[in-house]
Amino acid sequence: MTPKKAYYERVAKTLIKSMERRQMEAYYCSDCASAVKKALELMPKGSSIAWGGSETLEESGLKDALDPNLYNIIDRDTAKTKEEQRELYGKIVGCDFFLMSTNAMTLDGELVNIDGRGNRVAFLCFGPENVIVLAGLNKLTPDLDAAIKRVQNVASPPNTIRLNRNTPCSVTGRCGDCFGSESICSSIVITRRSHIPNRIKVILVGEELGF
Predict the structure, then answer these.
(1) Which residues contact 199 (CB under 8 A, 6 or more apart)?
(2) Is 194 in a helix, a strand, or coil?
(3) Phi, psi (deg, nearest 5) at residue 208
């Protein structure tokens, strides 16, 4: 085991305790394969499943592992009109499992997310019966200030490039505190606890995933 892997394993134990204190259910998986397996174990066959935009869900292979013959998949990308999109969002609100990652998390167990339209953080806060957060431990920060700075200066710049947004951070690589129409930073949501015990389930992965 490499020193980094040993660190991830040890810090995950601390993080799991912190999250459990905040009424979140948390697990540690050493790699993507075991993380995907754990996520599938948590979702009974026949469950309705949706997700928010996430590089982590793509990189880990979780989205590809969702068998439409076993689950009721609600894919917002299938909407061709605004009306269809609104209808799909209405279904996501009542789905069994909403999948996402997190932009950052603190050693004390808080989740920090910054969103553009706000639909991802909205479903994290309310609606779906369960939320599964898949997060590489590269997103761990010591405190809230560091978490917000991580989102603004580490996660958001590559996300704006991925989304072809013309923002200061897509050019300079650092947050420009912009207010333009292209900005993807509209809402900052700090999840300090799960109001419904264990509704939020966090799978920590001992690999670098996402931005």
Answers:
(1) 129, 130, 131
(2) coil
(3) -85, 120
Between CA 189 and CA 165 the distance in angstroms is: 21
Reported for 39-45, long-range contacts at CB under 8 A and 24+ positions apart, including other chains, are 39/65, 39/99, 39/132, 39/134, 39/203, 40/65, 42/97, 42/130, 42/132, 42/201, 43/71, 43/96, 43/97, 43/132, 45/70, 45/71
Secondary structure of 51-73 as H, E, C letters? ECCCHHHHHHCHHHHCCCCCCEE
**Phi and psi (nearest 5°) for 133?**
-105, 115
Q: Look-up: residue for tokens 């026949």? A: 46
40-65 tens-digit pLDDT: 999 999 999 999 999 999 999 999 99
Domains and CATH numbers, the chain: 3-205 (3.40.50.10420)
Determine the Cα–Cα distance for residues 14 and 23; give it in Å rounded to an integer.
Answer: 15
Rounded Cα gap, residues 124 and 207, in angstroms: 23
Gyration radius of the chain's alpha carbons: 17
Strand partners, 51: 99
CA 3 to chain centre: 26
| pTM for this model (two decimals) | 0.96
